[in-house]
Amino acid sequence: MSFFQTIVRSFSTDEGTNEGKNDKIEEKVFIHNAVENGNGTNKDIPGYCGTPTKSDFIKNTANERAKSAELYLNELNLNNAESNDNTVVGESRSLEDGEDSDLEEEGEESASTRELEEEFYVVDKYGFIIEDIDGATGTSGGSRTTRALISEKERKRRADLESSRSIKWVAMITDWQKYSKRQKKLLKRRIRKGVPDSVRGKVWNLVGGVDVSIASNPGRYDRIISLSESYVPNQDIRDTIERDINRTFPRHRMFKDKGEGQDKLRRVLRAYSLYDEEVGYCQGLGFITAMFLTYMPEEQAFWQVVSMMTGPTCNMRAMYEHGMPGAQKALYIGEKLIKKFFPKLTQHFARENCHISMYATQWFMCIFTNSFPFDLVTGVWDCFIAEGWKIVYRIILTFLRYSAPKLFKLGFEGIMFYFKRLPERIDGHTLIQQAFSFPLKQRHVDHYERKFHKLNPDIKERLDEEERRYKEAGGFGMGKGGCAPDTAEYKSPTFEGGMETEKDNLSDIDTVSAARRTSLAAPPYARIRPPAPNFIPPEYLTTQQQTSDSPSPFTA
Amino acid sequence: MSTRVEEEYDYLFKVVLIGDSGVGKSNLLSRFTRNEFNLESKSTIGVEFATKSIQAEGKTIKAQIWDTAGQERYRAITSAYYRGAVGALLVYDISKHGTFENVERWLKELRDHAEANIVVMLVGNKSDLKNIRGVETDEAMSFAEQHNLAFIETSALDSTGVDTAFQRILTEIYRLMSRRNMAAEEGVGGVGKGQSIELGEGKKGGKKCC
């Protein structure tokens, strides 16, 4: 147990909107009791609770409250350099560049012998650097939260709300079976409201069936890792991973420099590339993996990736495999949905030769992780892991719903630049809630999915074939690289997911996809009630652009 | 952003940036369009877009540049962007010979998906990394001659050659086009002022109808 001295600065850099406040930075010293390494609590992940108990929760809440100030001025305390749990506040940078050759061996000893440099920067609650100590700010190379878009009061309100929700969530986690089987509606509603950051990693694990995967594959991750040191079936893949390591969230404190964060990312990506040699690695996967690593330990992150890739709910594998059939399908469905809901805007886009792949490819490939503020990203992922693709389309349609009046006035280039800057304008929290009220139904998505398959029988055949193969083999990656699992009867990681299927409730979905879904175990919340009307009061936003009676998640 | 939408120009050229992942395509683009270099840059996923206007032979030429993801499988999506491009900067990293070896594959990609008369310039980026050079200038130059490509070495980091590269390829495209136009003018009208070549998008007010 150790105490860290953290200087929490409450400050406001509202990009010039709050006159004079920019340079007025209040500082107060805040002694923060770091999360103790309790039983089952992962020391590396602040707030990650392996098997949460009430006392874990209290500690996490303490952490949460400190987080709620949203800003940390990290002060590296040399006394803590030897301690392992310096992750809560500090980030240390080694002066001697640890050469990548023996990164795996770089353990505790080297950490203690490192010559350390004091480094100051301000990070948001997700760990993204908002401001270096020399005042350099910027969005380039990293996501950022939308601090500038919401008021201090609102920020505090959200933090308090999140804290109080944490209590409910801890109760749900400790009795997960009950909630996932008998209280599905409640669970779904709470997931849609947003999983509190303090339990997010654990909840994602539970929903993705990660614990089951680990239990039925004991030691498998470690075996793949040790295999990866000598077995390189595809040098190209290995090189591509390596090139992306320091280009993944370069403005996140965990990944900005060589060190533990980058090492973990490298290991998980290499492990997946061996687990599933057919896909190997595809650019985009790195961002998602890195996001997982900010919420959970390495082994869990690996199985979370496996779950997300191969499970029927997210099925990201189709996005990343050669030929990118999933990406083509998502772009097609996205395009058709836009046409359905915004026919005039579609005409305008057509006149301007503006195609969906020009702006939405990276949204689909990374499910928003690579450029959007993390309040949006994490909220989308809560829902994406639990419910599947519909939320992704909902978000895009909601972007357009609020952007349409602007987009109509713009020509091709204006549209492109508008989309490029979109991430900076979003209050993710509000946008997600708006997205749930968008009148998109699963049957719409299914309809266009069928059309796509009709137009592209080869892709359909291929995906079906893979699905068959997957079911027969009980998972991909059964070859040398995947290191066959221990258990005699392999249990597919995701289909054994922590939440039960809802077969009886598949009301608005057609038989074909219903058959497909149930055959693979339906997504946890297969069908959804009509979303509650906006329950976000308009005063949520300081900067508003009223397009209807509901608040806009965008700045003017 | 870097460019105002209403900017006046005489010609609009679409250019693509291609080459292996990590060779510096995005930084070449940001150096050229915004004079910025980002050490903390992120991998490009899909396609990115930027524009800049230059002067060549008394004309304002606007370049519409598409930066593409480098990983091979992304070609499933990015190859659509070669269509209509009048120029391509094929980038490799002078410190990594493998990225130069792949140039041939990228050329094939262009042959398969781009217009036949696309102007291609081979760009050896990261010329600041002289001490770990893996591709000799002579080797690249003779390859370029052999394949009838323009060639230049650049460093997006210290700016060397970046403006020259874009200036040269855009001027070259302009000359080729003028020659073609002149030939065409003897027949039909040719490409007029403010209209793009092979692009359905022109200056404000001069757009093609759907």
UniProtKB/TrEMBL annotation, chain A:
The keyword Coiled coil applies. Residues 97-109 have a biased composition (Acidic residues). Residues 82-92 have a biased composition (Low complexity). It comes from the Eukaryota. Residues 82-114, 521-556 are annotated as: Disordered. Residues 541-556 have a biased composition (Polar residues). The keyword Nuclease does not apply. PROSITE patterns: TBC_RABGAP. Keywords: Coiled coil, GTPase activation. Residues 194-388 form the Rab-GAP TBC domain. One of its GO terms (molecular function) is GTPase activator activity. This is Rab-GAP TBC domain-containing protein.
UniProtKB/TrEMBL annotation, chain B:
PANTHER family: DRAB11-RELATED. This is Uncharacterized protein. GO terms for cellular component: endomembrane system. It comes from the Eukaryota. SMART domains: RAB, RAN, RAS, RHO. The lineage of its organism: Eukaryota, Sar, Stramenopiles, Ochrophyta, Bolidophyceae. It is a lipid-anchor. It holds the Pfam family Ras. The keyword Nucleotide-binding applies. CDD domains: Rab11_like.
